[in-house]
Amino acid sequence: MTTTTDTESAVAEFRRLSDSDPEIQAHGRYFSCSFLWDMEEKTFLFRMHRGKIEELVVDPGPLEGYDFAVRASADTWREFGRPVPAPMFHGIWAATFRRDMRLEGDLLVLMQNLRCVTRQIELLRTTGPLV
What we know:
This is SCP2 domain-containing protein. This protein is α+β, with helices and mostly antiparallel strands. It has a single domain (4-127), classed as SCP2 sterol-binding domain (Nonspecific Lipid-transfer Protein, Chain A, 2-Layer Sandwich), CATH 3.30.1050.10. The chain is built from six helices and five strands, in the order H-H-E-E-E-E-H-H-E-H-H. A five-stranded mixed beta sheet has the order 3-2-1-4-5. The longest helix has 17 residues, at 4-20. The radius of gyration is 13 Å and the shape is globular. The protein starts with a helix and ends with a helix.
């Protein structure tokens, strides 16, 4: 189990990598939305504005709004965070069809920002999982 300090440092590193990622910045001019990553043990609410993380809230309250959510077990997210994930953990579609990942909310917003969201998930392979 991660401690608060571990989570804070992982979140800070993830935020730094995301905000400076060349691919997100190239595609992210209109990447402005809010979304939730539910990792079972921890939940992360991202508020994006023009490709930058404007706010990243750890364990937001139940009334915090967001456009869409990506939900999966902590084990699934841990597998996503491995440098070389196992088969069916390499992308959200594979994990949705064959594992326990669920996509909820306004999926049009997810599809409009899919490349940037996918790239952020890929950054977990650098930082390791946030849980």
